[in-house]
Amino acid sequence: MSHSRPHIDTAGRRARLGRRQLLAGGHRADRVEEVAEAVVGLHASDPATVHLAACARLAEPDPAEVERALYDDGSLVRMLGMRRTLFAVGAGLVPVVASSTARAVAAKERAGLVRWLTEGAPGWDERRLAEAEAKVLAVLGGRGAATAAELTAEVPELREAIVVSPGKPYQATVAVSSRILRVLAAEGRIRRGRPRGGWTSSSFRWTPGTAFAEVPAPPAPEARAALARRWLASYGPATVEDLRWWTGWTLTATRQALAATGAVEVTLDGGTTGVALPDDLGPVAAPEPWAALLPGLDPTTMGWKARDWYLAPDQVPQLVDRSGNIGPTVWWDGRIIGGWAQRANGEIVWRLLTDDGGSEAEAAVADAAARLADWVGGVRVTPRFRTPLERELSR
């Protein structure tokens, strides 16, 4: 360990987490835009996660507040960005995410689509693809919003399908509509609109968007530095590998972005080398002890690649699926202590996997569960990515 580097211990990291990610009771937000700002972006692969994660951090949890930002005001924008993952980010951050990650992701998605179509479907080439996309945009321009089924009914090209892995046990028939709409969304040319059902629904309408290529944005290196700075302010101190994993950048791009922020090397507990912003090296007062029930794929639980400082390795098999997706978790004072689920009758149930915190933690978790049950009401939430403990508890 180098004694010339500042040291930030695990307690200091947990204090920052509770305060800056709005999980400690006295630090919750009034508006969902503040939540998105605090965590940089809300995971949006599972539509329920956006609402559950936001409401866990709102002083007055209400799904309508999230819907206002997503669908009425447009102040929260879904983007396929970091790690090719769908995030909901504040509108002001869209140019930074577009330049730092989303444009590169969209370019790869388009190249993959062109290759898939031209190799798997006779008669498809880039010209026909462009014509089909123009028809989709024209329909949306006329209607204002449409589901994938409604678009398919009006754009004949979307009705075609391609057999994937022919002759293999996992052979499948895939509609070209899903791939084409995904690429248009990745480019920002269309956006996910209001769902057809409630806030947990995966059935939604598409609306016209503005292509990210047309959004005035800083050059990519400058945008990566801006995103790295925002991430460190919320998730630092952390390791270079944490940021590389979270963004999906190359190691070289990650190091260059960190250098541009002026990040300082620090030591973390266990002798690990981390980085922190130069104005974030001093002690941070711990908030009052807090408990939270966070959803699967919550931005905090998925915020770092190295998680031992808040997730005990022996809990991983119960709380993480085989693809690395973290399910619903119970938190106490900056670390995960268990998991939770909702049963078919709507009851919120949980299990603590450690006795850390004792009776104080148990009481606080019960209060957090009651708070969650109160605002969820009669809505039934089933995580898209299910983990062993969540499955067991939900029975």
Automatic annotation (TrEMBL):
Protein name, UniProt field: Winged helix DNA-binding domain-containing protein
Source lineage: Bacteria, Bacillati, Actinomycetota, Actinomycetes, Kitasatosporales
Source species: Streptomyces nigrescens
Keywords (A to Z) from UniProt: DNA-binding
Gene Ontology molecular function: DNA binding
